[in-house]
């Protein structure tokens, strides 16, 4: 009995607590009803938090005399952490003022902050123009984004939102330097007035001055300030006197008194000038000063670093002169320091290059340069503008030629500086966020309660927890009351987890959603779940991508062949030369033993050696890395338009090699928006479910009333007529959205009745209810919950005519409707009500709080089926993946029935017959298998339900061991290990956590699976473009090598000299890579099988077996699993060989049969005729390469011109190459050893090049064609290729066959 009484008391207490969870606020005459948790999210220092702590038994709304419309915006901000679209009709200042009144200005500031600034992607957010006289002369920026701008003798202040907050008038005529010393204290200096002056913005008054004086030297007077900076305790300012003597003074911030002097100097030379910029570096405690001047002979100056503690100079450079730079004479035009990044930047005056030095490794020549062919600064003579270059928030700003260049996150790399776009969160609030993370909390240690930082907690501390706290470390619960933890940051699941003695374990980083408790710390730092997670994703396996593996093989092979050929040619040429078989154009022997001088012999050998080296240069495919980089960069840029942000460049091509995609369900395959898809009302199925015309007005009114009042959600309709904003749990949002589509006016419906009592939704009873007072005497009690529970409490229902009917005879109909929806994995919710007499409702508040709502004899209004529908286009995307040979697997935490339904809808499962183990499997079942069993089962898994992040990791590991190239999607922090382990990690840009994004290779910005397929398409384009470039390059290699080798061996000379070969090399490598790397993807790419990781060879017996396919049980889709082409396919070899044979044949005929062709002038001298011949060979060879670029565009198609006009870059490069070739032949003959050709020879060269178009054939490799035809005649269908397979681990043979016939395939 005691236990029963205790249970009832607990239930009553819970009910009372839930009732008091809601609060009414009367703002400016408009009634708002919200939850305590929402307004308490404003923080303990806010007005709302104070108002929420009113007595629980006070039924009257709290009145606040403020603007209700702005309050509605701020309430929405508290719920969603975002400013709603309704805020657009108010100015930022209005919203900021109201937010400050309620004490939630920090929330508003965070939500209203400008978008992240990322250098190269920068755009102007706002321009500031001070209203008073004077142009802006200097400015100071605070860590929180506030700005002080000096103009004339005034300082204008702007807050974090760049709104003007005040103007301070100083006694100075012009302010040339300013520094923020304290939050409201500015230190200012002027080059026209003496002294350093301090002004207080809060009181608008002058609070002190500092002047440089020296009693022993009367010349030291009226010293002006040139630069100011500040540390935590001191202000540093550079002073100079009229006679140029200068000094840097350290001033105590508290007392405004000079405490030390640094670097007093005469000022009579450039290296002794007053510093025009000062920067204090907190990380090292040093002071960096720079001075620059310019005159008739250019720029000069110094960079000097002092240690204020000792007063010594620790590093110095002067330019020009004894400066620490390898670029003598290219002195800096301006210098600035990135104190946070510990880097010094300089702008070179002659070259215009940007240089960087790492302050941690300063030496004799610490500079590395970004060579971008920028305009030089030599024309900027006169006084140097100290804002020409400025480092701020990780960016480098360079004012040049009337424009502002923004270099984002400049990094040293490989002896140069790369300017890269930083797409991370803006660094503007970095310091603010660091302070925000340094949480102070009370702990019990050694029996004493002490306050310390979250970073100082140790194992054994006892930490109290309350609502809103962050769990500071891993631990176990000691005591607790209704403690609920939000573990979404770790698990990715939004469900709140209750903690008690049965589930006492707490993970660091999680938030306390409800209740109070005390925990014992058991793990900190790396020993927490969070720490272990971070450690697991920080390891780099360093694996090469599939394309890199193939490219390494091709590059090595071509390089070895080229080197061998070059050595052979050199040996032959040297042998012919020293044996006297090499003659000049006049027939004279070039080397005669004992007669030829040593210098002539050396010249001859060097000439031959140059030819050999040139052959090596042409042969070695140094253009491959350039082609890869170009096509990856081009694809990365284009993928941004397809909602994919590439974080790791090589992931572009790896995605093209993917053989399987393990995708999440919620938010990726589905919309993550619960929606009512089926509805029953009045014993009829509503089709469509939101058609209000089929509902009786009385039924519709009761449904709207029950939904509007019996909910914890909210509907906000903007006054400008925009789309309604609906908030609440996913189920609540779905039902509210359905009601809005039916025509419900949320605010009007709620105002028509008064809430008497609320029974919040209970997970045990699976329903929630509300009692409403209707008019004078009427009461409606509405219930909503699990359909089978609510239906069991109903005795009647309203039919389509609004008439009451007994439910007994139709209960079977409603039960079957619920079962049908359950089979479709719909979440079924029933809505019911009952009228009630007002006099039966308790009149006293104490009795009303204990009153239990009547839950029997209900009248059924409607039954709705809710689900998270598939995203539009997902089914087509899955079909494209299947067609491309990429298997899509769903890995979800939902139950198997829901996962199966979505998989069938998306096309991941083609039929219900496939929905059996092991095609669909639970994570627990897969987890319990041995490693060998997991590898056997992993290949067959299509859907995995009830999976944990560790299950996803195990699946990825098993698939990779089987040779699959695996892509994985994830959004939660706990998905990070799987994202890191996979070949390609794809994180979600909207739902994904920062940890998931950091662990991924590509971020899908719209969380849509269709975007994943677009990434696959672009990845395959990378691979295809590399193949095009390789075919083009190898054709040039083979032709150039063969013609030079044959000519060298037979005639002792080569028709293509070093300069000509280098021009061919330029066409082949740089221009060819640029032209072919930017080819856009085609639809045919998604009809190919994936390349995969392994290259598989076919045994001849298997090829024979393919021709007798009736003996094998293969399907057309089985071939790509075993027959994967190499990087250089048979079609490419065919094109390459035919093109090379054609070019070599033509060139050899021209070389040895020139006289018989006789296209030149008969009266030409022998030497001129030889030059014409060599020029014609060179010209023909180059034109063949130009036309061969068209062939390379379409490797396996006859129509090589299809879509060529869409690629303007390709057309431009081809046209430019042709024009340059004309210029080389006609005007640069002396440089390239060529002569001019007449129009007949030009037409001849052009004709030879045009004919090369016809050398490619569209027919495919005979074997492959026969195999395809054989597959099409297959009668028996088997998904996994064969009726009998055997693996021989000793020989690595996979035996495939049926009956007595067996064939071998090896990997």
TrEMBL record:
Residues 23-107 form the Potassium channel tetramerisation-type BTB domain. Residues 1054-1095, 1123-1253 form the Cation-transporting P-type ATPase C-terminal domain. Keywords: ATP-binding, Calcium, Calcium transport, Calmodulin-binding, Ion transport, Magnesium, Membrane, Metal-binding, Nucleotide-binding, Translocase, Transmembrane, Transmembrane helix, Transport. The keyword Kinase does not apply. One of its GO terms (molecular function) is P-type calcium transporter activity. PROSITE patterns: ATPASE_E1_E2. Its EC number is 7.2.2.10. Pfam families: Beta_prop_At2g24240 (PF25279), BTB_2 (PF02214), Cation_ATPase (PF13246), Cation_ATPase_C (PF00689), E1-E2_ATPase (PF00122). The chain crosses the membrane at residues 554-578, 608-634, 1131-1150, 1209-1227. Pathway: Protein modification; protein ubiquitination. One of its GO terms (biological process) is protein homooligomerization. Residues 441-536 form the P-type ATPase A domain. GO terms for cellular component: plasma membrane. It is found in: Membrane. It is a multi-pass membrane protein. SUPFAM superfamilies: Calcium ATPase, transduction domain A, Calcium ATPase, transmembrane domain M, HAD-like, Metal cation-transporting ATPase, ATP-binding domain N, POZ domain, Quinoprotein alcohol dehydrogenase-like. This is Calcium-transporting ATPase. The lineage of its organism: Eukaryota, Viridiplantae, Streptophyta, Embryophyta, Tracheophyta.
């Amino acid at each position: 009995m005691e236990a029963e009484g205790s249970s009832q008391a607990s239930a009553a207490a819970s009910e009372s607590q839930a009732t008091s969870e809601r609060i009414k606020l009367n703002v400016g005459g408009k009634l708002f009803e919200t939850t305590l948790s929402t307004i308490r999210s404003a923080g303990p220092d806010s007005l709302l938090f104070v108002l929420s702590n009113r007595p629980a038994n006070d039924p009257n709304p709290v009145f606040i005399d403020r603007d209700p419309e702005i309050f509605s915006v701020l309430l929405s901000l508290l719920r969603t952490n975002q400013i709603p679209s309704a805020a657009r009709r108010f100015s930022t200042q209005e919203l900021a003022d109201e937010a400050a009144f309620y004490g939630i200005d920090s929330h508003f500031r965070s939500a209203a902050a400008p978008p992240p600034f990322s250098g190269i992607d920068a755009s102007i957010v706002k321009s500031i123009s001070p209203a008073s006289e004077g142009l802006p002369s200097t400015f100071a920026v605070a860590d929180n984004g506030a700005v002080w701008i000096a103009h004339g003798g005034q300082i204008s202040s702007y807050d974090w939102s760049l709104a003007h907050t005040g103007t301070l008038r100083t006694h100075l005529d012009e302010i040339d330097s300013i520094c923020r010393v304290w939050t409201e204290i500015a230190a200012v200096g002027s080059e026209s007035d003496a002294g350093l002056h301090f002004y207080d913005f809060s009181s608008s008054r002058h609070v002190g001055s500092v002047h440089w004086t020296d009693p022993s030297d009367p010349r030291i007077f009226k010293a002006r300030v040139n630069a100011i900076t500040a540390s935590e305790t001191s202000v540093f300012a550079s002073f100079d006197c009229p006679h140029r003597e200068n000094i840097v003074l350290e001033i105590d911030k508290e007392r405004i008194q000079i405490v030390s002097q640094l670097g007093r100097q005469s000022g009579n030379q450039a290296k002794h000038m007053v510093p025009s910029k000062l920067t204090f570096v907190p990380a090292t405690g040093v002071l960096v000063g720079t001075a620059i001047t310019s005159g008739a002979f250019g720029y000069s100056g110094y960079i000097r670093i002092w240690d204020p503690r000792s007063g010594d100079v620790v590093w110095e450079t002067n330019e020009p002169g004894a400066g620490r730079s390898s670029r003598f004479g290219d002195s800096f035009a301006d210098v600035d320091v990135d104190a946070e990044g510990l880097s010094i930047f300089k702008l070179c005056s002659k070259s215009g290059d940007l240089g960087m030095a790492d302050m941690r490794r300063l030496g004799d020549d610490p500079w590395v340069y970004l060579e971008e062919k920028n305009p030089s600064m030599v024309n900027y003579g006169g006084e140097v503008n100290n804002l020409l270059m400025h480092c701020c928030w990780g960016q480098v700003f360079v004012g040049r030629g009337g424009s502002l260049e923004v270099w984002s996150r400049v990094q040293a790399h490989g002896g140069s500086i790369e300017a890269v776009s930083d797409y991370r969160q803006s660094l503007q609030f970095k310091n603010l966020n660091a302070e925000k993370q340094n949480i102070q909390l009370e702990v019990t240690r050694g029996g004493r309660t002490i306050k310390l930082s979250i970073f100082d907690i140790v194992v054994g501390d006892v930490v109290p927890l309350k609502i809103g706290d962050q769990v500071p470390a891993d631990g176990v619960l000691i005591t607790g009351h209704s403690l609920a933890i939000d573990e979404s940051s770790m698990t990715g699941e939004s469900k709140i987890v209750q903690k008690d003695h049965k589930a006492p374990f707490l993970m660091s980083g999680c938030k306390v959603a409800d209740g109070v408790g005390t925990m014992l710390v058991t793990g900190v730092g790396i020993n927490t779940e969070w720490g272990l997670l971070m450690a697991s994703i920080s390891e780099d396996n360093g694996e090469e991508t599939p394309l890199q593996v193939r490219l390494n093989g091709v590059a090595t092979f071509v390089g070895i062949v080229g080197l061998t050929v070059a050595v052979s040619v050199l040996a032959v040429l040297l042998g012919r030369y020293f044996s006297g078989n090499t003659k000049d154009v006049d027939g004279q022997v070039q080397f005669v033993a004992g007669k030829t001088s040593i210098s002539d012999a050396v010249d001859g050998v060097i000439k031959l050696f140059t030819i050999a080296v040139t052959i090596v240069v042409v042969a070695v495919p140094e253009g491959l890395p350039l082609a890869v980089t170009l096509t990856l960069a081009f694809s990365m840029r284009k993928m941004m338009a397809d909602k994919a942000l590439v974080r790791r460049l090589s992931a572009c091509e790896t995605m093209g090699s993917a053989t399987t995609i393990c995708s999440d369900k919620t938010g990726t395959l589905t919309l993550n928006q619960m929606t009512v898809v089926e509805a029953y009302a009045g014993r009829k199925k509503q089709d469509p479910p939101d058609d209000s015309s089929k509902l009786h007005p009385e039924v519709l009114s009761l449904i709207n009333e029950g939904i509007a009042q019996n909910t914890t959600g909210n509907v906000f309709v903007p006054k400008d007529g925009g789309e309604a904003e609906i908030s609440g749990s996913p189920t609540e949002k779905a039902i509210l959205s359905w009601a809005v589509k039916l025509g419900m006016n949320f605010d009007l419906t709620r105002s028509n009745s008064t809430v008497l009592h609320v029974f919040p939704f209970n997970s045990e009873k699976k329903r929630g209810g509300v009692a409403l007072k209707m008019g004078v005497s009427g009461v409606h009690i509405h219930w909503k919950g699990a359909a089978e529970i609510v239906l069991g409490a109903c005795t009647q229902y309203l039919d389509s005519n609004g008439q009451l009917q007994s439910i007994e005879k139709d209960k079977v109909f409603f039960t079957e409707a619920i079962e049908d929806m359950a089979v479709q994995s719909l979440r079924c919710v029933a809505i019911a009500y009952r009228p009630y007499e007002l006099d039966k409702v308790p009149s006293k508040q104490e009795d009303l709080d204990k009153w239990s709502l009547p839950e029997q004899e209900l009248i059924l209004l409607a039954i709705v089926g809710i689900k998270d529908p598939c995203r539009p286009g997902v089914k087509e995307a899955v079909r494209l993946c299947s067609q491309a040979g990429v298997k899509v697997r769903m890995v979800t935490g939902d139950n198997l029935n829901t996962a199966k339904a979505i998989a069938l809808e998306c096309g991941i499962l083609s039929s219900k017959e496939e929905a059996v183990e092991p095609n669909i499997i639970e994570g627990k079942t897969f987890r319990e298998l041995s490693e060998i069993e997991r590898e056997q089962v992993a290949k067959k898994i299509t859907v995995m339900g009830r999976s944990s992040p560790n299950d996803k990791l195990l699946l990825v590991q098993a698939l990779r061991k089987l040779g699959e190239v695996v892509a994985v999607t994830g959004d939660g922090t706990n998905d990070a290990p799987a994202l890191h382990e996979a070949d390609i990690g794809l994180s979600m840009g909207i739902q994904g956590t920062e940890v998931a994004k950091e662990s991924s290779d590509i971020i899908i910005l719209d969380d849509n699976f269709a975007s994943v397929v677009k990434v696959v398409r672009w990845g395959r384009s990378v691979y295809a473009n590399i193949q095009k470039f390789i075919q083009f390059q190898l054709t040039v290699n083979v032709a150039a090598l063969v013609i030079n080798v044959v000519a060298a061996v037979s005639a002792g000379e080569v028709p293509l000299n070093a300069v000509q070969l280098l021009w061919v090399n330029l066409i082949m490598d740089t221009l060819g890579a640029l032209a072919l790397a930017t080819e856009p993807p085609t639809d045919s790419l998604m009809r190919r099988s994936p390349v995969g990781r392994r290259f598989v060879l076919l045994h001849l017996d298997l090829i024979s077996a393919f021709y007798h396919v009736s003996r094998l049980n293969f399907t057309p889709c089985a071939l790509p699993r075993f027959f994967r082409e190499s990087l250089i396919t048979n079609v490419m070899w065919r094109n390459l060989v035919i093109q090379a044979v054609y070019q070599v044949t033509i060139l050899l005929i021209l070389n040895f049969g020139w006289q018989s062709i006789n296209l030149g002038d008969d009266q030409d001298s022998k030497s001129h005729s030889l030059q014409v011949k060599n020029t014609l060979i060179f010209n023909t060879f180059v034109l063949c390469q130009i036309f061969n670029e068209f062939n390379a565009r379409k490797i396996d198609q006859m129509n090589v011109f299809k879509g060529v006009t869409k690629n303007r870059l390709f057309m431009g490069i081809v046209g430019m190459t042709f024009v340059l070739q004309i210029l080389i032949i006609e005007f640069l003959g002396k440089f390239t050893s060529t002569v001019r050709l007449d129009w007949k020879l030009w037409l001849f060269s052009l004709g030879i090049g045009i004919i090369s178009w016809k050398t490619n054939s569209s027919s495919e490799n005979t074997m492959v064609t026969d195999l395809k035809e054989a597959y099409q005649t297959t009668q028996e269908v088997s998904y996994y290729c064969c009726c009998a397979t055997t693996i021989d681990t000793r020989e690595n043979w996979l035996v495939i066959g049926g009956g007595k016939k067996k064939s071998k395939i090896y990997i």
